Each structure stands twice: as structure tokens, then as C-alpha cells.
Amino acid sequence: MVNEDLQATIHSLHHDLASGAILPNESGDCLGVIMQDFLRSNPLFNSIETLHNRRENLSERPSASRDFAQFICKMNHLKNLTLSGSYHDDFYTTLSSMTSTTKIETLCDMYENLNERPSASRDFAQFICKMNHLKKLALDGSYHDDFYTTLSSMTSTTKIETLHDGCKNLNERPSASRDFAQFICKMNHLKNLTLSGSYHDDFYSTSLSMASTTQIETLCDMYENLKERPSASRDFAQFICKMNHLKNLTLSGSYHDDFYSTSLSMASTTKIETLHGGFKNLNERPSASRDFAQFICKMNHLKNLTLSGSYHDDFYSTSLSMASTTQIETLHGGFKNLNERPSASRDFAQFICKMNHLKNLTLSGSYHDDFYSTSLSMASTTQIEILHHNDDLRERPSASRDLALFICKMNRLKNLTLNGSYHDDFFSTSSSVASTVKDDCNTSSTVTDLTVTDRTLEGWQDCGSMFDIVERITIHVWCTIRCDVIQRIHLPAATELTIQTDKYATQPASLHDDPTSLPNALCKVSPQLVMVTLRNINIGNDQTERMIQAFRSSDCFKHLRTLRFLRCGTDESFDSSCIDSNGEHKITVDIVHGKPLGKWS
Question: Where in the sequence is the domain holding 121, given as residue range(s)?
Fold first, then answer.
């Protein structure tokens, strides 16, 4: 709260200055004077760790720029700085002169236009390179060539481990591109690199010439358009394959076919363990699709693969032909356009089932019915232990039936997440198969950990004994969860239940009903519960206290030992007397105070 209050005070100062509520001094500026006074008179200002200067325009105010730069450098605890304003050259000169006093670890520069300002560019580059504690740097402004020359000349002094570059105007600047490439390759501590700008061909040729010197372990290339640039594409492919320490690669740009053929020719040399391919434009490019499929299958160290985007049918047929050679253990398929492509869907299903090392599978795209029927026919051959499914099958009875059977027939499946929507036939098939197998004195499913969303539960029907051996159940909530929805699922062997806000939700979830009705709903899920956890659910002190009392007064739970409330909106004013163990059942209550965490926080 201290940081939030201080940030609000700074924002208020900026507002008052802009509105005229605070009058300037004789020199025309008062921003820096006020800030320096606050530093002297309010010791709390020295505890600021994060500062975001939002669109302040000091470009014509040298005195204020100098004072603001000193203010930044004199804050003893400042760790994270974001600059999104416009500043006079004196701002950068002052920063450079006081660099050694800063404790800044993360710097983000946004929007500033220095491409016609060589002096400011040089000073800013020196500020970056001389900061002893700087670990993370994001550049999203425009800079003069001297910025890049200075960076290159001072590379060895930096401690930067993570660099995100979003400069969009280097594609016509060969000198700056070469210097920036050298800066990247000569940084001794750089481990994580994200490129989301536009660069001249010389950037790629220079990077290639120095590839073996880099320490980069994670590379993310976003948005770059090289599809009409064969030379740059070839050089970039070689740069990737020649980096000795590269383990994690994300490709989301557009590349010439030569990129894929070059990558393929060097696939066996790579050390890449994790690959995310998000190509949007390969569906009409059979050659590139085939080469990329072979590249994937020939990488000896590749363990984790995420595929999204669009690919030609040849990608899937080629992948299938080489499935047994892969070392992939985790696969995330996010294809959105296979629902009208039966051949590609069949090939992808076979690729999945024929991978000898695949343990963890996420299906979050749209697939033709043939995908599900093919998967079913090969279910017993899979090594999959974890399955996450997210597809809309509400109007597809055949696919729903095949999915239910696929789940039942996977011999090694332990952890199942159902995040989609399903036709009634999914549930009736599950129930029928479970009943049939149970009559034969066997178990219908090997699943011990089940995760469902509240959206999935809204259409849930009885699955018979399909999930009879599930021990742990997690319910992900998008907005509000109702007790009548929770109790639709019956898991007689479940001993642990968690209700939490879904990680993709835009706000913390809450309970629709009176909190005292939750115990009765959970009793219908499983009376064998030993632990109940609520995580990142917005309920607060009063509802939490009432819920605890309701659980303790319930006669349903004979085995319940632990209630956990993790960041559910409680705070230090919570009545701690209600969490003391009650004599008969000795239910222990664990609480981690704080606001729910998620995308919104």
C-alpha cells in the first residue's frame, strides 16, 4: 500500500502541475524542486521500488528534466522504472552522470523519439550500460544511430540478463542494425532475448557471424516479416541453430521458405528443448510446411512443443511419417482450422498416438470428427499421462462419444482437464462404458486428478463410475460459481477439492450463493473430503468466517482435516479466533491473506 500511495502522490503532483494548481517558480519549473523537497521531508519516498512516469512532456523544460533525472537516481530503493514521456537532452545527460548511484534492476523505455537527437541517444546508451544493477531492459522508442554505436562500444560493462527490443525503424538502417546485433551477441550475461522490431539484413548476417559467442538461452521473435527476404531468413535460421546455449525458442514472425529449409539442414546441431511455433501463413506453403515438420522431428533435444497457426496438410503427413523419431514429451496443439480438414486431422491424431515419449497433451484447437475417431482407434498405444481438452463439441455427438471412449481407453492417463463443452453423448457414453467395465470387475478410467471449469460443469451429467478413482478435483471459475453447479459432479473417492479463479479470467471469481451453503454442495461431490481449498476467490473476511463455521457445524464431513483460503480477499482484521481447531473434528484452517491474484492484478 505504501508504494501505491506514493505513486498516487506523484501522479497527483503531475496533475496539479499540468492544471496550474501548482504555480511554477521564477525559472519556470517547479516539478524537480517539489520532488526534491518530498525526498527530504518524506522518508517514505525513499521506499519507492516501482516508478512509472506516464506521458509527461518535459522536452522543452531543461531544469525540470535535470531535476527529474536526479530524483530518479537519488531514490535509494528504486528497482523498476518505466519512462513513457518526452524529456529534454539534459535529462539524459544528468542520468548518465549519476548512473553509479542507481539501484534500478528493470528499465522500460516507451514512446520516446530520439532518432534525431544524437547527444541524448549517446547519454541514454551510457546510462543503460553503466547501471551496475540493471538486469532487465525493454526498448520501445526510436533512437539515433549513435545510441547503437555507444551500446556496442560499452557492451562488456552491462549486467543485463533480459532484453526486449521493439524498435520498428531499423530495417533501413544497416549501421545501427549491425551495432545492435553486436551489442546483443557480446553481452556476457544476456540469457533472454525478445525481438519484436524490424531490422536490416545486416542485423541477421552480423548476428550469425557472432552466434557462437552468445549466452542466450531463450529467444522470442515476434512480428518480423522476412517472407520476401531469403538472405535474412537463411542467416536468422543459422543464427538460431548455431547458438550453443539456446534452449527455448518462440517463432511468431513470417519467414521465407529458405528459413525452413536452412533450419532443417541444421536441425541435429540445435540444443533447443522448448519450441513455440505460431506461424499464420504456412497453409498455402507445402514445402515450408514439410521442412518445418522435419525440423521438429529431427531435433534431438526437443522436449516441449507448442503449435499454433496454420499449416499445409503436408505438415501433418510429414510429422506422422517421422513421429517415432521424436523426443517430445509435452505437446500443445492450438490449431483453429482443422475442423474442416479430415485428412490433416487424421494425420495429427496418428502423430500424437505414435509419439513414444509423449506424456503431456493439450488440445485447445478445433478438429474434424476424424481426429477423434482416429485417436480412439489408437488410444491403447499412447503413453499420455496428462490430457487437457478444450474444444466445443456441443453440436457434435460422434466426436463427443469418441472423446469419452478415448479417455477411458488411455491406459496411462492420470491427470485430466475438461475445459470444453460437450454433447450429451459424452456423458451417456462415459456412463455406459464405465458400467460395462465395472461389471467385468475392472476400473473404467485411470484418472486420479480431474480439473473442470464452471462452464463445463453447467452442462455436466452423470458419468456413472467413470471417475470413481479420482482423488483430487479442481474447479476453475471464470466469473461466479453456483452451488447447484458444483454439486452436479459426483466423485465418491475424492479426498481433495480446490475451487479457484481461472488463470485467464479478467477478474477474481466469487460465490453466487450464501457461503454457508457451500458445505452441503461439496458433500454431494464427495463426503470423503480431507482437504478443501479456495484460491483467489473474492469472498473477504465476513464470508470466510461464516464458511468456516458452516464447515465445522456440518455432520457430513467425518474426514475433513484442512480448510485453506489462499488470497481470498481476507486481511489482518480477520477474526483469528474462528480458525482455532474445534474439539471433535479438529479441522485446521490455513489462511494466506491478500487480494486475489490473476491477470487483473
Answer: 1-145+155-160
